[in-house]
Amino acid sequence: MNPPDLKYSKEHEWARVDGNTVTVGITQFAAEQLGDVVYVDLPAAGTEVKQFARFGEIESVKTVSDLFSPVGGQIIEVNDDVKDNPEKVNEDTYGEGWLLKIELSDASQLDSLMDANAYESHISN
Amino acid sequence: MNTLNELDRRLLMDRSVEGRRAVALPESDVPAQPMPDAAMLRDELPLPEISQLEVIRYFSLLSHLNFSIDTNFYPLGSCTMKYNPKLNDAMASLPGFAGIHPNQPAEQVQGAVQLMYELQGALGEVTGLPGVSLAPLAGAQGEYAGLLIARAYHDMRKDSARTVALIPDSAHGTNPASAAMTGLEVVTVPSTADGNVDVEALRSLADERTAVFMLTLPSTLGLFEPSILEITELIHSVGGLVYADGANMNALLGMVRLGDLGFDICHSNLHKTFSTPHGGGGPGSGPVMVTEELAKFLPEPVAVLDGDTYRLTEPENSIGKINGFHGSFNILVRAYTYIRAMGGDGLKSVAENAIINANYIQAQLKDRYDLAADRYCMHETVLSATRQKKRGVKGLDIAKRLLDHGIHAPTMYFPLIVEEALMVEPTETESKETLDRFIEVMRQIDDEVTNDPETVRTAPHTLPVTRLDEATAARKPYLRWNHTP
Hints:
The structure holds 2 protein chains of 2 kinds. Chain A is 21% helix and 35% strand. By secondary structure, chain A is an alpha+beta fold. Chain A has a single domain, classed as CATH 2.40.50.100. By secondary structure, chain B is of the alpha/beta class. Chain B folds into 3 domains: 1-23 and 39-66, no CATH class; 86-342, Aspartate Aminotransferase, domain 2, CATH 3.40.640; 347-473, Alpha-Beta Complex (Aspartate Aminotransferase, domain 1), CATH 3.90.1150.10. Chain B has 16 helices and 13 strands. In chain B, the strands form 3 sheets. Chain B has a 7-stranded mixed β-sheet with strand order 1-7-6-5-4-2-3, sandwiched between helices. Chain B has a 4-stranded antiparallel β-sheet with strand order 10-11-13-12, with helices on one face. In chain B, strands 8-9 form a two-stranded antiparallel ribbon. In chain B, strand 4 (210-216), helix 9 and strand 5 form a beta-alpha-beta unit. The chains are: A alpha+beta, B alpha/beta. Chains A and B meet through strand 4 of A and helix 16 of B.
């Protein structure tokens, strides 16, 4: 269920690498654990974020959780649509439910992320 | 038993008929006075026009829809929904308590101040922490006051670099929130697989920056922390203070005193442990208790006995006032009544029966529901609906299905470290028959998860409102009644 072309973090975020731009969202597993997402708090474009640092907050009918960035760099775009329609996170987790686009500061950061297989075994433990 | 569904469910506004009145006033013999400029008045104010009988029926019917400990079993974990003896209300209604004004000087209300003084003494005795202030209005305010005391203590020792609050990952959400409000940095301490504090992890996190370690005892998993003495010693050895979240104190009454375990500060939720109303019936009350050494920092007022006069005082290095007057005074009267009516032995039997009741439920359900930790629990047991989830039914659905059986849902999805958590706290005031019925219903629902999962997934079916769309309600809140829908 987790797309093989993405990278994954232990904190259940995904990263889609396209040249120097990385699109970031939460995984299907995270979305299912959270249940219906009702609110997403994201930083403004232009903000610098460090790898694995907290960048925002996601609230569901069950709980509120911190969001952690799988990569570091400058945020170049924020998904405003998901702020107004947080259900996109549940409905299209790996598509319209994306959260941030980040300009990667250092490509070697990607080495500390998991591929889909490694992430599958991470969540089955 | 579907009668509640058949009741007239129209809102007050929808019952309005133009020109209808609730009271007939005699003709006025007061000369008419000029009204303010019409421009200052709202021209459209759609107040309902309803007869007196209709108003009474409307609110009486609403009261029938109420769900409370006085009507139903209410095993809401971490909330200690015990029966609140009516004697408490009778005492709080005495004119000597109910009719006094908070600005009356202490010498005019000696009985009230004496009650505060004696309640301070009782709470100090129960917790083993003799410095007591009854001022905090709720548990979270008690936490906040306690943490301000910790900061004041470190500041006075010129030890102001202590800016970290260590908090376990199983903590109530108020703990990190209170710490952040106090300006402390929250650092999370992991739990071990069997639900205890990971002492080795704590050892690596505790250092000269540690202001305080906050621990709920028993933990939110309903478990007693076996390493507690090692933990308090460890935190003291690096110069930090240890705070006890007293939310689960029902399990400790008369059994063990927090002060004897090495805690420096705690709060108590009188509205949980000491049988004062909550869950909409409040207000809450969260007295803060500290060691003798920290008593000088307590929030004011603190009642003292000076010769044969009771006085309200401000401690020497008080963190100040944290609200206007004397705390939730009428709640203090109820808690005092409860403590005096129960006596020492009675309070101990509260803890004993709370623990026995929770363990009875746990033992009777563990073949059907997974446990967060398979060992004796204290006053509550945390079940996990992971086995049911594999059959396509979530913990939420089970909680909703319980409502069809007239049982309040347990606390769901907390603590956060337990998947599909259903946290059940029966309290000591429930009979074995009630517990047996709950157990039978939980087993029946588990059967239903196999045989008829759809019925569970769409529950409740028999309540005045059925499954609510919580997600849409939160995403697109509709906050104002609309006269013309």
